[in-house]
Amino acid sequence: MKEEKVQELLKVKLREKGLKVTQQRLLVLQALAANSGSHMAAEDIYELIREDYPDIGLATVYRTLQLLLEMQLVDRINLDDGCVRYEIGHLFEGDTKHNHHHLICRTCGKVLPFEDDLLEELERHIEEDTGFHVLDHELKFYGQCKECLSKSK
Amino acid sequence: MKEEKVQELLKVKLREKGLKVTQQRLLVLQALAANSGSHMAAEDIYELIREDYPDIGLATVYRTLQLLLEMQLVDRINLDDGCVRYEIGHLFEGDTKHNHHHLICRTCGKVLPFEDDLLEELERHIEEDTGFHVLDHELKFYGQCKECLSKSK
DNA sequence: TTCATTGCAAATTATTTGCATTTGA
DNA sequence: TCAAATGCAAATAATTTGCAATGAA
Question: Which positions bind Fe cation (chains A, B) (predicted)?
Answer without folding.
Answer: 120, 137
